[in-house]
Amino acid sequence: MREYKIGAGFVVIFLIAYFLPLADPKYAGAIVEAFKLLQWYARNHTLACVVPALFIAGGIITFLSQASVMRYLGPKANKIAAYSVASVAGTVLAVCSCSVLPMFAGIWKMGAGLGPASAFLYSGPAINILAIFLTARVLGLDIGLWRALGAIGFAFLVGLGMAFLFRREERQKLEAAMLMPEPPPARRKGWQSGLLLAAMIGFLVFSDWFNPGDALVRRTDGTEIRGVVLQEMRDEVMIQVQQSVEGIRAGDRLTLRKVDIASIEEARSWVMDVFHIRWYLAGLMFLAVVAMVWRWVTRDEFKTWMVNTWSFAKLLIPLLFGGVFVVGFISALLPDKQIGQLVGDNSLRANFIASIIGALFYFATLTEVPITQALMEHGMARGPVVALLLAGPALSLPNMLVLIRVMGVKKTAAFCALIVVMATVSGMIAGRFA
């Protein structure tokens, strides 16, 4: 089967290379935009978020005992406690759909039940307190409330749905767990391993601390643009305009060369205050990790940790980069105005399309809010807005590609279908009452 998949991949790449109409400026521009998104991902998310998450995943496999994971998240765990732990853990992390994947793969490999693991997988990027408050402030209190209630409820419903759909496999996992011998006593105490992983998670939280992006951009020609900084590449900055100015409409995205920008004045808030000192805070967490590894981790365990981390990196990074590139290419071919026209009412069709768009496109932390605001400027109805916000942060094409490798096609399809269906229904209900 693996060889067939590799062969199919070769065929797809060949057909794309053979038939892609590069003479068409639209497709040529889409390739450039795909590379820009990939560069932004590499500069802003890979080192600060994905790499720390890979080390955490390797640490879960190396330092946490399988018995502890099974006790709190395994098939034998108390359902209420397991789903609550999974949801709370996701709330603390508040990472994007790609960055939660290594940690999900780690707890899944250690024997976590499919239901709690799926709840964790959804809650990590979806139940983001700051994003929910930003949604309420920018898009309206009603949409913020729908997003909050939907995200919390989805974490439980997705987990319960996955556990029900694959209950036979979960029963077999439970029976296998019952037959497992008692694990040998851990070399470290439980609180030591927990504190080590907590410090690594602290490093991830601060290194990937989100910047809401609200700013006043002054160009060298003297004009000022108030907007949200969506992407910062090596030589360019992409801004979503919030206030119309000199023929540029509110909601439009504008790419400026850095040489044409005189200054960028950021909006002041406690979030930005933390953002500016994030590397100092992350550095403290890093020093704490180094000290604990020096005191509590043997040389053989350290080697095992690095091997496990490298295994996750080989598994995940090529798929993440490939998925981000494809999303950038597709996004360039679907302008906001065209998407807004497809989701301009609260019908089943419009909400389903919004859920599919949210599920496929990649949204970094907090960027879904200004992007959705731009779509609303182009006519997107409030029901599809809710559907996109519930499906978007938790899913993306790169996320799906990795999940297929981690838990297979059937489980990935079921996980995505549950989210899309629930987001569609939630959007229709919200559209009726909004």
- Largest sheet descriptor: 5 strands, antiparallel
Count of helical stretches: 19
Specify the structural class.
Answer: alpha+beta
- Portion in strands: 5-15%
Tally of DSSP β-strands: 5
Q: What is the radius of gyration computed over CA atoms, rounded to a whole number of angstroms?
A: 22 Å
* Poorly predicted spans: none
SSE order, one letter for each helix or strand:
HHHHHHHHHHEEEEEHHHHHHHHH
Tell me the helix content: over 70%
Q: For the residues shown, what is the average pLDDT? A: 84
Distance between the termini: 48 Å
Number of domains: 2
Spatial strand sequence of the major β-sheet: 4-3-2-1-5
The backbone outline, from C-alpha atoms, is globular
Report on the structure:
With 434 residues, this protein is of the alpha+beta class. The chain folds into two domains: 340 residues, no CATH class; 55 residues, SH3 type barrels, CATH 2.30.30.100. It contains 19 helices and five strands. The chain has a five-stranded antiparallel sheet with strand order 4-3-2-1-5. A hairpin with a 4-residue loop joins strand 1 and strand 2. Helix 2 packs antiparallel against helix 10, helix 5 runs antiparallel to helix 6 and helix 6 packs antiparallel against helix 8. The longest helix has 39 residues.
Record keyword descriptors for this entry:
2 domains; about 70% helix; alpha+beta; about 5% strand; single chain; globular; SH3 type barrels
